[in-house]
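Hi,

I'm pasting everything inline rather than attaching a file, because the server keeps stripping attachments. The sequence lines come first, and each chain or strand is labelled.
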Amino acid sequence: MKRAALLLVLAAVLAGWWILRPTTWSESELPAHSPDVKAGEKVFWAGGCASCHATPVNGRRAKGADRLLLGGGAELDTPFGVFRMPNISPHESDGIGGWSDLDFVNAMQLGVSPSGQHYYPSFPYASYARMKSEEVLDLFAFLKQLEPVASDRPEHELKFPWNLRNGIGVWKRLYLDPAPVIDLATDDARLKHGQALVEGAGHCGECHTPRDSLGGMDKKRWLTGAPNLEGRGSVPNITPMAEGFGDWSESDIVYYLETGFTPDFDAVGGSMVAVQENMAMLDAADREAIARYLKALPTGPQSE
Amino acid sequence: MSGAKISALLISLVLASLAIADDDAPQQVRQELMKEVREAAKPVGNMLRENEAFNAETLMNSLMVFAKAADQYGDLFPEGSESGFETEAAPAIWEDRAGFDMALSEFADATKLAIESSPMTLEEARATVSPVFRTCKGCHDNYRVEE
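And the predicted assembly:
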């Protein structure tokens, strides 16, 4: 009897370990790909890497060329605690200079660090998981030729139970899914490109989709807006709802992403400024693809 | 006049003065002013976007609204007006006054240059008015909370 109970506990521990353990890819699973730095630069802007990882200048968000100095150090104050942005410059010890291609893909698409630790999903790998691994390798090639930046390596300061990283293993089982969010039965290449940008690298859903109690995106209410985790108010619904974002034409959306002005010539504000400035660095065709995808979305009321 | 009537009158007077005081709250004054700026920006933006024909007079009228706003705006964020009236002013305005004033002066300077250049064609407007529009974000980025 005692032995059976012991076995049961052992089985439970093993099952727990199996569920919580970080899964990674192996070298043989990487695609054969010769990376393209120029393509990687586009991925860099689409992915908004600078918005979190560029080192703030005089306590303010980096602008212009300073967006390429990726020493980290910015803080993201959320209900779960304070996240401190790491250094992703090619610095050998403080940044990702010592990383292999495999390390980088595992980080970006499976949320696992080179030492085998789960990353918090504040790093939007749940979206990056939908990217092509080739694009991720292009991005890595672009990052590696930037200037190395030395920095401290500050830790996140999360509240219980969020400070237990193993729990992220459960989170990943529930929410880490590289499948497209919206089922678009279409041959429209521009629409598909828009889907890849918005659902993948652009990680728009991370802020514009409401989260459930465990912090996963509620895909049934995809892009219908959400409470603002970084402060007051709410993040707007960007599905084509009547008397809302649906009143914007594709060309209005393109213009907004390029210049930061709404159709009423209200100026972009808050954390969307950095996003818009990243989107302005893409090709016009990319912004047009994003607009087409947003116009094709199923709509729903604003999520609060 | 009955006592009840007098007190009703007094109450309505007090309410009326409260309403006036409300109108004078800096939060509301600055919101009205910002609305004026946005209304003035609309035709200019549509000209730059080539949704509307270029009109030098409309453009100049709008630039004058910008100049007035740039001149008055700095005084409309006194201590004590950090909240209320659904203000979208960010705490950063009071935490980093110098930065806010700097962002505002960029708007003022760009507007002044645009007025002095007195653009008569769309091309000229692109050269001197587009920079004015770019300064909007200078404040909205750090000093405004979107609701």
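Chain A touches chain B at residues 59-61, 228, 231-234, 255, 259-261, 264-270, 272-274 (CB under 8 Å).

If the labels don't parse on your end, tell me and I'll reformat.
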